Amino acid sequence: MINSQSRKNTFSKKWDKYSDKDILPLWIADMDLQSPKFLQDIFAKRIKHNTYGYTLTPAKLNHEVIKYYKKKQQWSIKNEWIIWLPNLVTAIYAVNKMASDSSQSLVIPKPIYPPFTESAKHYKAVFSFVSMVEEHGRLTYNFSKISKLLKKDAWLMLANPCNPGGSVLNLDEMEKIISMVFKEKAFLLSDEIHSDLILDQNIPFFSLGKDKRIIDRTITLHSCAKTFNIPGLSCGFAIIPSKKLRTRFLNTIHGIVPDPSLFGIIATLECLKKGDSWRNELLKYLRDNRDRVVNVLSKISNISFIAPEATFLIWIKILHPVPKKGWRSYFEEFGIGVSDGRDFGDPQSIRLNFGTSSSNLNKALKRFSLAMENING
Amino acid sequence: MINSQSRKNTFSKKWDKYSDKDILPLWIADMDLQSPKFLQDIFAKRIKHNTYGYTLTPAKLNHEVIKYYKKKQQWSIKNEWIIWLPNLVTAIYAVNKMASDSSQSLVIPKPIYPPFTESAKHYKAVFSFVSMVEEHGRLTYNFSKISKLLKKDAWLMLANPCNPGGSVLNLDEMEKIISMVFKEKAFLLSDEIHSDLILDQNIPFFSLGKDKRIIDRTITLHSCAKTFNIPGLSCGFAIIPSKKLRTRFLNTIHGIVPDPSLFGIIATLECLKKGDSWRNELLKYLRDNRDRVVNVLSKISNISFIAPEATFLIWIKILHPVPKKGWRSYFEEFGIGVSDGRDFGDPQSIRLNFGTSSSNLNKALKRFSLAMENING
User: Fold this and answer.
1) Is residue A3 domain-resident?
2) Are residues B151 and B289 in the same domain?
3) How many domains does one find in chain A?
4) DSSP labels for A62-124?
5) Residue A39: which of B46, B50, B233 has the nearest Cβ?
């Protein structure tokens, strides 16, 4: 069963931002839903032991990752390809550092989740933006433009499913990307953290890095953090089949990137072993939420939006001149705290997180409608 | 009450290294003792909530750190000086990266905890070793040599209490270091993670960075990880009073060093609030262990050792030619897994972790004695 949960008094980044205000937080990408009961159970068992010393990622955790890819994608991952991480942002920064240190340029589609561009700027990497395009209600890539920019040894940086757009690469799009990376001898970072949150049951998912042509040129990132709502527990992983690339990556993270935390390790193991049936219930819950959001938004004029195929996030373009303070401040005045599209490369848009209870979502949608009525006059 | 605890089947780095062998692990620095009961209680309460989303370090956590320094050292820390970290190794790496990027040299005493030198090598920083000297059964610094090597803007890298030596800087030694750093306009990293584990009750402790002369040239590192046996929970902090230095440090860790984990934050808050009485019991327990170790070792010939003033670690020099495979392998053959002094800058020595149960310790000491009898013939 999926249970919603108040996040108050839990040091929640999402909720404490507005703790003294009547603003419903719909920004940072975690959910106002309880994690599966089996996590509570395994944690209760673990804390009976009451020691929390240096913890390794056990062999059986790798074994579960290998099983996961085998079952979901018929992809045979090798044990040594798996690198454990405290989260995926550290890995995105590490790839940008590697790229910058080796004068490799980067091609970054936009809109995209802020760490992609922030990390490129932070390490003074040379990068180009390529705006995504809307086609048949989905965000997709401008393949010809990417192809022109993607040089030998350059990095194409993707999130699939994309964040904020929520679209999942289809087989045709995958082939375009794979053949492009292969042809140009480029590299690919594929952040697949939302790949277990595909709302439409008929959409298949395959990791780009699975393709033999580019397997040695790809870093795949994944984690249970989004699906099982455990980003506070610090655990994720990279899959890097190429030994050379893996060595570079390991060298970059050495010492400065810590191991996953004890509870993150325990949780990830348990989610991989037992998570499927809870996840199916979650998908149903999130589908209902998405459909409700889409239903409300389609009645509002002067916005355009992408109904997400995956994630609990929706990307909405506001077809009005952007207020000076940006859309975030505008919507805060109406009691909802959204992510400002500026941080994703498009000041015209906002990202709204619908991973919350039905009652919060209804309240939030009413406030959003009111805010839009106010602009629409 | 201090309870010992088997660490088996908990993904313990320390124990799983030898899980299939009859070797007692006395290496990595965590304890085979339960954490305080109040941690179990707060965790039990927290998991009832069963959400584990993005978590911030709450204002009251900073407040407790400020109270801690005020009470223990009459040092008034400012809120903005505190930087939260997943652990202290990441910070040691960050300082070495900063030093290397700015062509600042480093002076590192030895023996020292491996990350100090590993990080300098990793970032190709220019560094000099200065061997510590034994004086009246304590390890102390070669001040005149350090003074010669410490140039303007160079970093002096210390652990106080020192690890592996376990000595605590006395007021005279502190004055020498402070005036040297001040005179040379150098910088100081002071890792004080063992400063709440001073076994001798009459030894006072003050942070070097508290001194006004060098307050703007010092990074102080601390954590509850060692004292309360929670290194698996990923939480620690740096205190950096200088805004300029803080900005450099924050810039270095940005993105690639993650936040502390949720359970690390909860645990640290609770330990700072409630930890004192449990800590006093722990000190008694560890004092007993230390005294037992010292008692056994003093009867063994051809070793020399430092009775530690702090920590649950003891540094032992073996006065025999080092076997080809090193001392670690030698002692493993006799059923104890120690830290090899090679990794600390002295292949002649070993570090032995006595943070374990009385029965384990007795067994380990018997095995150590037997191993020594075998060399001594």
Assistant:
1) no
2) no
3) 2
4) HHHHHHHHHHHH-----GGGEEEES-HHHHHHHHHHHHHHTT--EEEEES--THHHHHHHHTT
5) B50
**Residue contact B255–A89, C-beta within 8 A:** yes
Determine which of A122, A228, A261 to mutate to test the interface with B (most B C-beta atoms within 10 Å): A261
B57 and B145 inside one domain:
yes
Residues A203 and A91 reside in one and the same domain? yes
Q: What is the CATH number of the domain that holds A227?
A: 3.40.640.10
Residue of A nearest to B61 (CA): A11
Q: Which residues of B touch A33 (CB under 8 A)?
A: 51
Q: Looking at the structure, tell me whether residues A246 and A292 fall in a common domain.
A: no
- Domain stop point among A274, A291, A315: A274
Site from A19, A38, A52, A259 to mutate, B interface, most B CB atoms within 10 angstroms: A52
**Preceding omega of B111 cis (within 30 degrees of 0):** yes
Which residue among B245, B274, B303 closes a domain? B274
Q: Which residue in A has a C-alpha nearest to residue B114's C-alpha?
A: A255
What CA–CA distance (Å, rounded) separates A323 from A347? 10
Which tens digits make up the pLDDT trace of B212-225? 999 999 999 999 99
Q: Are residues B174 and B93 in the same domain?
A: yes
Nearest neighbour of A261 by CB, restricted to B90, B254, B261: B261
> Residue B150: which domain range?
51-274
Q: Give the pTM.
A: 0.98
| A346 confidence band (pLDDT: 50, 70, 90) | very high
For A59-78, the pLDDT digits (tens) are 999 999 999 999 999 999 99
Report the share of chain B in percent with pLDDT over 90.
98
The long-range contacts involving A20-23, CB below 8 angstroms and separated by at least 24 positions, are A21/A332, A22/A335, A23/A332, A23/A335, A23/A336, A23/A337
